[in-house]
Amino acid sequence: MALIKCPYCGGTVSDKAERCPHCSTQFTGTGNLQNAPAANAAAATPPAAAPASAETQIDNMYAPPRSAPIFAPTPAPGSKHSSQGRVLLYVVLALLFGAACGAGFYIFNDRKHKSSDSDKPSLAAAARTENVAEQHRAWDDDEAGCEYDDDDLGCIIHDPVPDGAEHLYGNVYAISTDELDECGGWIKPLLPDNARRAAVFADRIWLRSSMSTSDSSNKLALLEYGTHLDVVSQPNDKWTEVRISGGEHHGLRGYAATEFIISVGQFSVMDSHITPDADSREKLSTAKWRRALTDAVCQYGWAGVTDGLIVSTPYKLEALPREVIAFRLFDPSDYTAFMAFIEFYDGDEEYRLLGCTDDCDVRHISAISTGTYRLELDFSSMLQ
């Protein structure tokens, strides 16, 4: 017989004993504890311990410490494993809640973006009004820049965007040339019927003895830019009978091409603003450009401004046989400018002033129909 430890309570017991004297656990099989099947030992449920005798209690006091049971008990509610399960559940719920919040934010932001797109014209118009109001408040501080109405009731807010313009984005607007103030149809470069004096606005033309350009023998004198002429008669639209009123050929009489002479009043405007020097005449070498720009200056009301406008061509559309040019006329004395949109017909000196606007950047010009064009204009420089 040998002494061994009980696998359940750790007490010392004989290997021949059928029951543990300490925990009363029943051993299976032949009573040999060493030969007990592991499965039976695991399945055995120890009965409730009987009250121990005094001797048993003394043995327990001096017995070796009991080892932990072989099999861990099923975790009770509120144990560590149960807590880990709840934590995992909370994590899953938090992820689902975050995903739902993200989806809701995306839907809300998408609807807000679409709503803001639909409100862009009104928002841009409000911003434009606010910008103009800013200018108005600045003018209140300095009345030198203020524009007053006829009754002198106060400052008039100036809006550079033409009436009827369609808002595209930002400060960019589109308008048809039919909606601009027009000069009224095609203009032929003719002298007024009652004109008595004229001037040459081309670089140079020939004074001829007959109304023909094919005959080189009829040339009388070369007339330079600025030569003044007395009008004798206007036999047709192409030729004007004139007499030289000064200079080397004073009193010489002949015919000059009507498309290259202009009334002295208009020549004064042209010479002051459009072609005041040799450089400007070189840049604006086309005679019909010079004449059309002079009409634009007169129509826009700039005939009395400081001399020497700077003319540029920021945009040109070739819609053969027609041609549309956007001219920018800049006054360096006060840094103001305006745009003139003019249509020319290829091979002819006729032109048509489509209209004028305040200074802007021309984004695009496209043809809507014959003689009608769509202008896309950016007024950022005027509204900021």
Report on the architecture of this protein.
The strands form five sheets. The protein has a five-stranded antiparallel sheet with strand order 10-9-8-5-11. A hairpin with a 6-residue loop joins β1 (3-5) and β2. α5 (264-274) crosses α7 (287-300). The protein has 384 residues and is of the alpha+beta class. The chain has helices at residues 38-43, 54-62, 80-118, 120-141, 264-274, 278-283, 287-300, 380-383, and strands spanning 3-5, 12-14, 166-169, 172-176, 197-200, 204-208, 219-224, 228-233, 239-244, 253-257, 261-263, 310-319, 322-331, 336-345, 351-358, 361-369, 372-378. Among the domains are: 3-62, no CATH class; 134-187 and 309-384, no CATH class; 197-265, SH3 type barrels, CATH 2.30.30. It is rod-shaped. The termini are far apart. Helix content is 29%, strand content 27%.
Keywords:
384 residues, alpha+beta, SH3 type barrels, 5-stranded antiparallel beta sheet, 4-stranded antiparallel beta sheet, 17 strands
Give the helices and strands, then pairings.
Blueprint: E1 3-5, E2 12-14, H1 38-43, H2 54-62, H3 80-118, H4 120-141, E3 166-169, E4 172-176, E5 197-200, E6 204-208, E7 219-224, E8 228-233, E9 239-244, E10 253-257, E11 261-263, H5 264-274, H6 278-283, H7 287-300, E12 310-319, E13 322-331, E14 336-345, E15 351-358, E16 361-369, E17 372-378, H8 380-383
Antiparallel strand pairs: 1-2, 3-4, 4-17, 5-8, 5-11, 6-7, 8-9, 9-10, 12-13, 13-14, 14-15, 16-17
Helix pairs in contact: 5-7
